[in-house]
Amino acid sequence: MSSPGLIDKRSLQFIPYRDCSSITFEGKWIHKDGHAIAMEESASLRMRLKNARHLYALFSRHDWSGKVKVSVNGRESDCFDLYSSYYFQQCVRVLAEEGPRNVDIRVVILGRNPHSRGSQMVFNGILLPKEEATAPVEPDRPAVLQAKQETPAAPPQSFFDLQVHMVDRYVDS
Asked: For residue 129, what are the CA distances in angstroms to 46, 92, 163?
């Protein structure tokens, strides 16, 4: 899968994985420091979205990361390698559709590359166009979950603020 290239961050809203009820984790995962880490090769990530057209996922890349495969509604969409010899976060497009539709996106680990020390997947959250981020994200959600989603405890950090923080961390290292 290719990087989305240049994107206008002002038109996107970052939603941390823990604030989005449409994301489920299958297998063994650890949740810490604002990201989820897959701890076994059979672990996978699933996102069910309603009326989605574009979706970006924010992953952390490092020397323990491996290759992953993305499928949309059961059809393989793309594969990409999260390995990097140094740590950084990358925004990757996992959905680009002509018109809005309900989608079931699944990201599974394929394994290591020849250089990586492991096959981890480290997931931070999703980025949606602002008009899609305000719409319900999960089809057929119970009303209790809908009310909880509409009144978050704290507003999610904007992608711009997150990227400034990432650059500062990179410079420090």
From this structure: 19, 14, 17
